[in-house]
Amino acid sequence: MSSRVVITGVGYSVPADIRSNTDPVFDWLHAHPPVGGNPFQGYVSRRVLAPGQDLEDIMVPAARQALADASIGVQDIDLLTGFGSLSLLAMPNPLALVHQKLGLLPNTPIVPIANDYAHFTAGISLATALVETQRAKNAVVVCGSNWTRHVDYHTPQCISAGDGAGAVVVGRSSDPDRFGIVDTETITESALYGSMYMAGDERVGARGPDGPSIPGYDHHSFTWPYFHITDRGKSAFFDFGQRMPVVAVHALLARNGVTPADVTLIAHQASTVLLDYWKDGIGPRCMLDTLQEYADVPTANLPITLAAKYADIDTKYLVLLTLGVEFSVTAMLLSRSTTA
């Protein structure tokens, strides 16, 4: 059997520390429930990085697990892509530390993909294209999130955040059970730019060490970056966030002659509010998630679920569904070469 460009290995890693819904960090939110209810639902626990840990401590083990699953070594990798969010540094991305700690060869390039939250599908697309054109032989796509440190614990979205990392290896294989890209469908509504975003708030009247603050230059003038959702973002959560993924997946499947009943769906896991809507609107044979165990790991919930639930995929077709805060939605159709 001839080889195809496929996902040859999967892996994931989550911190050991577990935070339940009754953790004291959520006391303020429990005492002040949001007006109109909380759209962020479905979590039982989430994993949290311990003091002294950061993204590389989970991204590296995820990548190593994917390499082991693909039965290759670091010397076989000639591309590292994906994203770590958020870095302690504005740049470079933590992928540089992953490169170092994995022991990748010096001529292995690092290509961060800052495509929130579609880093993973974009990374698979890039890696597949480069392997198909023989610009690379094997690529690691690794995504990690430490957003428990980047939410305001006075806002509803704080309860959704979890930390974790997931990874895949993309290369050539004749294994008929491995998944390769068939097609993608994207819908972008860039007019919603700024309705959800990650940034620090300017401290009014703050003074730096050398006098008046200069926004954009004096770091003493800003809070730590955290996730903001505006009123427009709250509306987009339900309007665009619910409807457009259903539209994108149906368009993708129809174009490729695939029925929803032939598909396993793994989707962005912000809330059961969205997951339940998509399941009803799309009608896949199976929908897999890790929301109860790991909550929403924005950068990495797709690769985490893919690795953790890989043995449960019993269909020929797999759809990966991502949301982006541009706003955008990307649906990726993958296929085994065998029939289910």
Structure description:
This protein is α/β, with parallel strands linked by helices and 340 residues long. It folds into three domains: 170 residues, 3-Layer(aba) Sandwich (Peroxisomal Thiolase, Chain A, domain 1); 120 residues, Thiolase/Chalcone synthase (Peroxisomal Thiolase, Chain A, domain 1); 33 residues, no CATH class. Helices cover 26% and strands 27% of the residues. The chain has eight helices and 16 strands. The protein has a five-stranded mixed sheet. β15 and β16 form a beta hairpin. The chain is globular, with a radius of gyration of 20 Å. 46% of the residues are buried. About 3% of the residues have low confidence.
